[in-house]
Design a protein that fits this description.
This protein is an alpha+beta fold. It is 44% helix and 12% strand.
Length: 801
Amino acid sequence: MTAPSAVPPRTLADELRARSDAELAGLLRTRADLLSPLPGDLSQLATRAGARASVLRALERLDTFTLQTAEALAVAPQPCPAETLTALLPGGEDAVPGAVATLRAHAVLWGRPDGLRLVRTAQELLAPSAARPSATGLGPTLAETATGISPRRIQELLHHAGLPGTHDPVSALTALTALFTDPERLAALLADATDASRAVLDRLTWGPPYGEVSAQPAAHLRWLLDRGLLMPTSPGTVVLPREVALQLRGGRAHRVLSPAPPPLAPYATPGQDATDAAAAGAAYTALTIVEELLTEWEREGPPVLRAGGLGVRDLKRTAVALDVPEPEAAFWTELAYAAGLLASDGEADERYAPTPAYDRWLAEPSERRWLLLAAAWLAGTRVPGLVGGRDAKGRPLTALGPGLDRGPAVALRHRVLALLAAAGPGVAPAPDAVAERVAWELPRRCPAPTRALLTGAALTEAERLGVTGRGALAAFARPLLDDAPDLDTAAALLAPLLPEPLDHFLLQADLTAVAPGPLRRDVRQAMALAADVESTGGATVYRFTAGSVRRALDAGRTAAELHAFLAERSRTPVPQPLSYLVDDVARRHGQLRVGAASGYVCCEDEAVVAQLLADRRAEPLRLRRIAPTVLVTGLSPDQTLLRLRELGFAPAAEGTDGAVVTLAAEPRRTPPRSAPEPAPDSPPHADDALLAAAVRAIRAGDHAAGEGARPAGTRLPATATDPAGATPRTSASETLAALRAAAGDGTLVRIGYVGADGVAAQRVLSPVRVEGGFVTAFDHTADEVRTYPLHRITGTAALSD
């Protein structure tokens, strides 16, 4: 830790040297891009912090007022006293110190209070120029606009402004600038302006500061041009100098200042208990929908488009099967994909299908299954709300297709949920208020339309998934918002709230069944075979039809099994019409038998055989009678079954021994697939241990560079050895103990390491953590953070002085 110095810093690097270790760790935490690769010393850190790409990322993470403060600094003289900065931001005096502290913590600003400075890159990005006005609406300074103007013309400006002539352009511009920055003298000059001239100034005062003039300007414009109140920037274009605009504004850098965030006005207060109940219900529904989706696709998944993604027609069919709108179907499809439960099979006829991870997911308790979905959603950068639109090149955006990643999605989603958490338990802020707050906190993170889309999508998807209930954040979702999500606590809070699956339903006389709550998985699957879902909601209504009963028989169920299932699972007596329906369909089911000869059809009822031969719709089957009850066809058995069912018959498949068999396909699975990696627009945040190790390494490098022991940025030899030159060799337990001790007290350690090529080398490490069979450390031989498997480390040794 370095004590603050009484000497004013000359550069950003000097100020960084005066910061404490905690402050440096805070800088690396807020600007994670500075960690990779790790700077060799504080001079490199300052240089990296001033790089254009890094400064842009830092500005994107500033709130509106902090950004307005930086913009005011950009138009103020450099260095800028704190009093001058405060004068540029009237109405925000109380918030200025906090904004300055934030800019300083982000290394965008440095210097003492009497001489604040923006880093040069931030000054270039925020300050107006002759080619670009700033967000303040101010233009360039008088000196910048006078570049290229002849000395004679500058003297004419002095004369018309009532100032004495000078011997050189520099002193002339100094005199004009002094006039424009003196409120009383400028007011006296403008007292002679006509109403038309004042109207032009009023129009340009708050920006944009540029206007167009003809080759022969009108008299009121000529008056302004002759006095330097308007300066030409190019043929036909003039600009209002910054000094004049600031005086006309009364010294304000911004027309509208936003020193405080907009309030999160609540539109409902359902209470935490009601919120958790609603969210838990939505969470259980989410599990059911994802399971229904993957059950549907394990039979025959939709094909993958040539350009990747899911076809529009397949998305519509999926929406119909799930009984949800198409945008919601796209969301559930993308969620299953992000969780690693769905992928393409990679075969020649490429199709989507569940992955082997889906089977493991089904075996988990309900709360753990939901946590997997929630974690995938929180970390995902794909935006299902874009499906149906087009990319920058006009190509359509499809579900599961390319082009749906948006880097800021994760940060905005977490920010929205943090705002919901800050609103209080059981309090639902108005969606418009949430959108306004996010716009205030992250005005530059992404374009306004994209930010509005991502904010709205976060609120909608959180409600669908069960992260929120009735617009308020669920208690079991709060542990997921921490930097290190507490999954065990979230699961313990969610488990008692999930509805207990029912093992029964209520049969009614109109061939319907009512499930008063969520059904157990095996019961739900059996009902999905024997009946069609008619409506969903608090209760699910199923309807039995001839087609649905035949579907159960086709799947291998017998009439006796259906009767037994209905009698066992129904809390009401089985209605007689339903028993008759099952028996009637079963009696006709299997009258026709289809087997493999190329294909044949047999039936004990010759009248049915004659009816089939006489039906013109059966001509594509090319049936030929070889016996009174046997027909042959050139089609395969499965195609014959399909055609006969389309004609209204109820055929059954027959095996080689003449017994009825089921031709149901095995559930399809893809080869093992890993979940897609998110594509955030910033590197992941480092934990405290890694930040502490990084600060120690930077301090050590800065100290070495200052003493000349090792030039900044140079590396230790990759095979650094001790004087004896022996590779360290210790037992596994001794190695583990030494690495853990070094990680605990922050010391250096020398290890022997065998690479994948079998070559042994030595490394000098600052271990950060040792867990899971790996050691994560700052490698001083490579000047970067690396992770090494413990089984490849031959041993450890203390590093000699």
